[in-house]
Amino acid sequence: MKKVFVFCIGGTGERVMKSITMLMAAGMSTHGYTVVPIIIDPHLDLNEKKNLQTLMLKYGEIQKSMLLDGKCPEGFFNSEMKLIDELDTVTNDTNKVAGEDRSYADFLDMGNLDVSSINNYLIHTLYSKDNLNSRLSVGFRGNPNVGTVVLQEMLEGASWFNFLKTQIGKDDRVFIISSIFGGTGASGYPLLERKIRSSKENEILSKVLMGAVTVLPYYGLSDPKKSNSKIDSSNFKTKAKAALSYYETTVKSDLLYYVGETEMKTIHENNEQKQEDTTNFVELVAATALFHFLQQPRPQQTQYLTRAIEENVDDLDLSTAGSGYAPMVKNMADMYILKSLLEILTKEKKFPLKKTRGFDDSFYKGSLSQIREFLEEYGQWYAELSQKKRKFAPIEKDIIPTNMSNIIKNSVELGAPNDSYFLLEMIKESKNETPNKVRNFMEYAYKAINHYTQKIK
Hints:
Structural class: alpha/beta
Shape: globular
Order of helices and strands: EHEHHHHHHHEHHEEHHEEHEEHHHHHEHH
Number of strands: 10
Number of domains: 3
Strand order of the largest sheet: 2-1-3-4-6-8
Largest sheet: 6 strands, parallel
CATH architecture of the largest domain: 3-Layer(aba) Sandwich
Number of helices: 20
């Protein structure tokens, strides 16, 4: 089993991993690699982090429900994802040290320093009062100078890192996702990369093929004075430039992807506690970097890559994004059509496979219920993508069963005037039957949908 250990650092890392999970569900291939996500985020009780962990668990359970002789059929949920505690008895303890409700001053043990000591003066020279009073339980508030110290401690002796050292194989890879304009990502990426490269106990780990996507500023935050926040997004670009100058001489990844916006079109609410930021097109583009990385051979020197769009417009579809996005749009359309077909089939009374293959009401409400729940989350994820100021909406949001040929905006006609064409293809594909009904349904549905969507190029 080839594995890729995907380190998701901070809020941006988590949001990009959400898009990776959605794309994997839609059928984007990891080319034989099992994805092992590892979240590094000190923010306690962050719903975004909890929701991602739940989503990844659901993905794994659905993928297992489709297995037959250890293999999944082509298409939806085809690639394997395993959480680290499925591979070993250790748990992901990356939040243990930094994820405590204490101040940075307490972390530095300043209470035991003499107020007149040189160390006390030095700390007050290096850190502001706000830095020292900052609660670690809400992250590093865009301060990599704090994050670097805390995360260094956090990485020392972590059980997941010890597991990585003992379990990584010669064909495995490492991929790191982070932002460069905040605190956790900007500090966490170079620290983690250096720790891996300097590993003396395992030569395979120190020389592992490593990729990373670094997300440049792509959104702004509302006025910090109105929410009493310590994070000011007007400093994001300045911080990114400073970090880039450091990365220039220290980066040791084999492939480094840069993704960002030329201007911060989207403005999020400046709420340090909740950070309820909806899905952004830049996160989706960053997610595609992993799939590209898994197809690349080891380069002779560090390769720097980025990705562009065809037209600089606020409302992107396949035409304005560019043909390079066609494979991703095809997968996204497959998933969205699957969602539509399931809504149709739960009401369809004359579908022959209800009797011949057991695709009846109890099947949809039972064995297929978890997939239906996942598809609802997928629909919400796509809706968020299509609502930003930089919208990405290549697929019609509301698919009309009587007009399913023109669901790809400003692009190819699929050639299926209505839903009956897809259902007929499912019936044609039902000749290959296995004891696994979930697998059967998903395989028939994928082949029926692919019959039409393969035109998307």
